[in-house]
Amino acid sequence: MDGNxxxxxxxxxxxxxxxDDASIQAEKLEDFCSPEWQLRSRHFLVLSSAGKPIYTRxxxxxxxxxxxxxxQAIISSFSDMSDPVRSMNVGPHTIVFFTSGPLxxxxxxxxxxxxxxxxxxxQLVHSQIVSILT
Length: 134
Hints:
Layout: H1 3-28, H2 35-39, E1 42-48, E2 53-56, H3 65-79, E3 87-90, E4 93-100, E5 103-109, H4 115-133
Antiparallel strand pairs: 1-2, 1-5, 3-4, 4-5
């Protein structure tokens, strides 16, 4: 490979890194009101029982703090009853809740995913968090 070909290859690699960095930065600026965030078919959110954002699959946790606070309020209002909220269907969206101690996990899908599948995925996310912390 001559010097020009290697230089062109390195430049092409650098350009793709710039594009990837730009897409990552754009994703981190998404909040729940942005069209980009709303067009995604699945979301996974993790928050504390106090409503503090811990993780989101898309977007920035701090940008989604208002949404996470609303989720915490919904879960808390149902936890006062004898039957805690497990899932909801809102239009085309399936929303599944999973609570474990001080962690609240939420999955939202508009792909007609079964509730059981989303709950299993939330349990896997929970297991990963516990695994990392212990």
